[in-house]
Write a structure and sequence with these properties.
The chain is of the alpha/beta class. It is built from 13 helices and eleven strands. Helix 6 (178-195) crosses helix 8 (214-234) and helix 10 (265-282) packs across helix 13 (347-358). The longest helix is centred in the middle third of the chain and has 21 residues, at 214-234. The chain is globular and about 60 Å long.
Length: 360
Amino acid sequence: MSGETVHIAPSSGSYDVIVSASALCNAGEHLAPLLPSRSAFIITDSNVAPLYLDRLRSSLALRGIHAAHAVFPAGEASKNLATLSDLLEAMAAAELTRSSTVIALGGGVTGDMAGLAAALYMRGISYVQVPTTLLAMVDSSVGGKCAVDLAAGKNLAGAFLQPLAVLADTSTLKTLDDEVFADGCAEVIKHAVLADSELFDILAERPLNKDDDDLYLMTVIATNIGIKRRFVEADEREQGLRKLLNLGHSIGHAVEAASGYTMGHGHAVAIGLCAIARASERLGWAEEGIAERIEAVVAAHGLPTESPFPAKELIGFARLDKKSDDYGITLAIPKRIGSAELRYVSFGEFAYAIELGVGA
């Protein structure tokens, strides 16, 4: 089973996303022709390291690539400036040069940390994404966005840096906890609502499961990457069209923040997606019945549809969203399944939308 390859070509440089059930074992073969030198540095977390670090290092070594590594404590709580500083010091201690390459091995947090570390070290060195979660495969590993959280909010300090390549190995999905796998399902559903009604119908009929056959998983993952590619290529720096990829995130990020980042990103996005669908339908921005359809697919994937936090609490966090300015915020609004639009609203209108979608 050879897998699928999706080519991404934003203005700053193109790369391939390879989706297969053997991408990790063949990492050295894939990467050897791409790396500027035979010096690499793997960044991973405490959950992923025992599972896949040795396998990746062995694959690289077969192709003469020497890889030092650093492991940080798993979880969103580590996605901060302190961890970033530790990683940069470890890279310097390993004597990386401008021709070295950082390799992110893990989920979305690892991809963010490694990407930002690569962007900052010596004013920027190359990096590769090796995502091991569904969320990272279909969303965060593609597009070049990398950031850390600040006390004030999520992803408030970051950069854009496109990877040299992305290697998505579907076999790693089998070891995920059900909740972690479901986190990725939220982004898959979001992409379907945003731009692919056929994919949405497939998900409604056959909800994703981590034990699905590799061919089905590879097809769904490659389809999602293809959706994201269209937005990244059209708007690499997220000045306009790419903001549509934030569907469900403006409220979802507020839910995450209200939970103290103890709730998984996908679970929060699922809540945000359902909330903005309810609000959009009630405000006449979306077709009738869209919220019920989205809620059904979200629930079928084991994800929450309702916020455990009241609208009043979420409104305070939502004002810190990156898509806001001094007067309001640009929201991604679902119009119908497979189509969405951007709508600029005042903070008062946004607060009202949260109340409609979440409840007081």
